Prior knowledge:
By secondary structure, the protein is α/β, with parallel strands linked by helices.
Amino acid sequence: MPSPTPATEPPPGESTRRARRGRRGGSTEADRTAPAAPVRVVFLGGLGEIGRNCACIEVEGRIIILDCGIMFPDLDMPGVDLVLPDFSYLIDNADRIEGCIITHGHEDHCGGLSFLLRELSFPIFGSELSLGLARSRIEEAGLLDRTEFVIVRDHERRRIGPFDVEFIPVTHSVPHGFATAFHTPQGVILHSGDFKIDLTPVDGRATDLARIGAIASDEGVRLLLADSTNAEEEGHTDSERSVGGVIDALFAQNPDKRVIVACFASHIHRIQQIADAAIRHGRTVATLGRSMGKNVALARSLGLLSIPDASLVDIEKVGDYDPRRICVISTGSQGEPMSALALMAGGENRWLTVGEGDLVILSSHAIPGNETSVGKVIDGLTRRGADVVHSGLARVHVSGHARRDELKTLISLCRPESFIPVHGEFRHLTHHARLAALVGVPENRILLAEDGDVVELDGDGIDFAGAVAAGYLYVDGIVGDVGRGVLRDRQVLAEEGVVIVVVTVDSKNGEVLNGPEIITKGWVFAPEAEELLGEAREVVADAMVDAIQPGPIDVENLRRRARAALGKFVSERTRRRPMIVPVVMEA
């Protein structure tokens, strides 16, 4: 049982330091009298960042993967499309993998499957909607023959190899998410999934606190892994249903404007509320953006989205309607460069030209790292004359993640023997760890884990048990073609530019036949800097004369001398450090 709730929160940093060390917690009498094989949890992503969620549960030497997500690149990752978990551990242990469970259909939890399946083959377990969303990417990659999609239902308890897994409904910003309870030889490991406690969900499918409480009372929760995204935010997250009233009011206040609403294509409940408001105000709905169209079709086919055929029109025909009678539901709420909304902001969308007669609603909140892109889109739409409403102006978005009071409710209900915060940046994990201590989880049973950590449960308690590779795998077009060195080069090119020097030498006597020729991009503007470029050519020519010795030509030495001479000149004259690329050709 947890110790009594302390009166005050532990001093900043104190519980974090204790948690990170991860001392063994004491075991119960039952644990000591009935020893069982240890159970391991391996974290491959999602701890210390938003995205790349991926972990493994290991029982009896077998592995089940829990989520396999992507992360969108930061500003210091130029040219990178996506960031994946390091799959080395999974590839090295391919023969031990039973399958992958996806807790819900967001890209940061299932978007990596189409990359992992290039290396491995395994079945995927999830709700019908989650599998439908994941299947789309896997089909695009031509990898359907590498997997089997196994639908699981609310409250289903399924045996997957040695794993006894129970699927518990939770409310999130995409329908049919699950918390997963692993009934293991070392007790129940409960993973919350992404969740919030919404008492009035749009579809009536609430987080099943009763079942979670029953597990805690009957078997007990040996280890709780819980969503930390909003661990810094006080109070409760508002109900998704609250957004519907705000959007309806915006329709009522703007009867003479065309309304364009951007949101996540996976946010089926948000799409439902937007469509309901539009239809109530006599408007026809059109979807814009490939993923929006596909997801709406999928959700309608599964009975999760109700839009009458008569109220839904193809975007190609939207020009045939009175703009005041149209509502367009679009992708691009995160400011993605080639998204439908970004193209509208730039005046390049083939279907819609945004202007003074338009109201654009961004029914989302910028994911950390996307703020600049979203700001540019808002600015572009406003410049074109549209009225733009976003979450800073009206309550047109609520989070799908639990805040502190909800997190305290879950921890109190579970009364876990041990606790590990997951899903969030390091500060979120830290605050969640302290919150668990505040609620009453003993500090020596709270582990603050990071990507790559291996945690082991046995009869003596819980502790760290080593580490595995868990770095970033960058995707730029194809998998694995971008490393840290490439990113550093790209940053230099972006910040300082490049200077290329080309020299042709006689392979027999070393005489300079042509050049040096200086080519520059991003260092100086060549037509305005002829005098400077002329001096640079002279410096390299002098270096070549000094470097050429009798005998066979050492091309590599000539390159080094050219780079050194030009680099010193550029630094002294301009105080800049562009990339220097010497090209020495033999004739």
